[in-house]
Design brief:
Blueprint (H helix, E strand, L loop, with lengths): L9 E3 H7 L2 H9 L3 E10 L4 E10 L2 E7 L17 E3 L4 E3 L2 E6 L1 E2 L2 E2 L6 H12 L3 E8 L3 H14 L9 E4 L21 H11 L3 E6 L10 H6 L3 E4 L16 E2 L16 H6 L5 E5 L7 H10 L5 E4 L11 E5 L2 E6 L2 E4 L5 E3 L5 H11 L3 H6 L3 H9 L15 E5 L6 E5 L19
Parallel strand pairs: 1-5, 2-5, 2-6, 7-10, 10-11, 11-12, 12-13, 13-14, 14-15, 15-16
Antiparallel strand pairs: 2-3, 3-4, 6-21, 8-9, 17-18, 18-19, 19-20, 21-22
Helix pairs in contact: 3-4
Length: 432
């Protein structure tokens, strides 16, 4: 045992979870100004700590690493006073960020969603390890205004919802995918000005097609507004007029001109390192495992962002639903329009996307998590959406604890673990 270990100040996880009332754990931690998690697996961006420790005090991560916890982190005076939770067999990860998501658990951002619904959705997304998400919506003035009002009313703006993602309206109808023709517009500076005014500073990412006539007239306005330009729903050649760097690529390989060895398509730009960030839907349906492996080999590991592009039926289980008034079906092949079979989104969310990518590519979990945590966080930093959490000393103590097989998790947010008992018939704590 480490030198700082004291049985009197320790909550041994086996005892606590199997024999004690979880409410006792909550109270014990609540009465302190911090706690120590010991013998825990920690998923850092660059590596995995198998026997790590993490010290939290006043809502801040004071130390994270392996081996002996240094006394000097707190001036040598308080380490023995902090309760220790031995966490053998559990894992800690940063919050997953759903950067491109149209809805989930029955909620769609294009519908009449309100603040309470957003809070409920955020709570449900936490069951998938998602701590931040960027509501993604197609351009409709009334729908966008309603979503922005809901975000304000939810109290989640900034910490959980850093802003919104607008897919279109300046995209190529030939590559519209599941986007309706009525939601596609010709390039007009006046319309973009209206869009920016409507979004009131909360627009973080906007997808457009770089081959559209006069598209370059929009680039300065978007850059001035601090909006990340994402290229997608595009039939562009590699010679298209590109926006100033950095820019992003929307869901690589989907709804875009593919790789071509002569003229080159939008996929060439992504694989050649021409973009600051590249989204990839890693549900195993939108992109084949082979293509995912190729993307991983070609794209800078710090530039690859995993997304779900999920729509409202995601998270509800397989079955028949409605989306934009049309019948859709959710199954192992994703979410599709029932009649024509057009793929419109993933049925997987958060941790399921991470695990799918890790399995398909053979990369380790630290890298897979980085592609859905650190990398989208870096993009948001460039797009005015700063304020996230990282597993680093000095950062806010906002992270997730997972059981051995990453099938269940709980969020620890700030000073006190959120709802340690979780109530109900089966406490998640008892399964960790």
């Amino acid at each position: 045992m480490p030198a700082w270990y004291s049985k009197s100040s320790t909550l041994v996880i086996a005892e606590t979870l199997l024999y004690m009332n979880p409410a006792f754990v909550h109270n014990a931690l609540a009465m302190t100004d911090g706690f120590i998690l010991s013998d825990v697996g920690i998923l850092l961006p660059e590596r995995l700590l198998y026997e790590g420790s993490l010290v939290v005090e006043a809502g801040i991560i004071r130390w994270i690493g392996e081996g002996e916890i240094p006394q000097e982190w707190a001036g040598g005076a308080r380490i023995g006073d902090l309760p220790v939770v031995e966490c053998g067999g559990v894992w800690i990860s940063p919050p997953i960020i759903e950067l491109h998501i149209h809805g989930a658990f029955g909620y769609g951002f294009e519908t009449a969603i309100d603040g309470a619904a957003l809070r409920d959705l955020a709570a449900k997304l936490e069951t998938k390890g998602v701590g931040r998400f960027l509501p993604t919506i197609l351009w409709d003035e009334a729908a966008v205004k309603n979503l922005l009002t809901a975000i304000d009313d939810s109290g989640l703006y900034g910490s959980v919802i850093p802003g919104i993602y607008l897919e279109g309206p300046f995209i190529n109808s030939k590559r519209r995918g599941g986007i309706g023709l009525e939601q596609i517009c010709q390039v007009e500076v006046s319309l973009l000005e209206k869009v920016l005014e409507t979004c009131a500073g909360k627009l973080r990412i906007m997808t457009l097609a770089p081959e559209l006539p006069n598209i370059e007239s929009l680039y300065p306005l978007l850059k001035k507004a601090g909006v990340m330009i994402a290229l997608g729903h595009s039939d562009a050649k590699a010679s298209a007029k590109l926006p100033p760097e950095p820019f992003s690529i929307t869901h690589l390989f989907n709804a875009m001109s593919g790789f071509d060895h002569k003229e080159g398509g939008l996929a060439n730009i992504a694989l050649d390192g021409g973009a600051g960030w590249v989204e990839l839907n890693a549900d195993g349906v939108h992109v084949s495992p082979q293509a995912m492996r190729s993307a991983l080999r070609c794209i800078d590991p710090a530039s690859l962002i995993l997304t779900s592009d999920a729509v409202a039926p995601a998270g509800l289980g397989y079955g028949d639903y409605s989306y934009f008034g049309k019948a859709v079906r959710s199954d192992t092949s994703g979410v599709r329009y029932a009649q024509e079979g057009t793929l419109i989104g993933s049925s997987l969310l958060g941790i399921d996307i991470v695990r799918s990518f890790a399995a398909a590519t053979g990369c380790g979990l630290p890298q897979a998590f980085s592609c859905m945590s650190a990398n989208p966080e870096a993009l948001l930093d460039c797009a005015g959406g700063a304020g996230g959490s990282r597993l680093e000393s000095g950062e806010k103590a906002d992270f997730f604890i997972w059981n051995r097989d990453f099938s269940a998790c709980r969020r620890i947010d700030g000073r006190i673990p959120r709802d340690l008992s979780l109530g109900g018939a089966a406490s998640l704590l008892e399964r960790l």
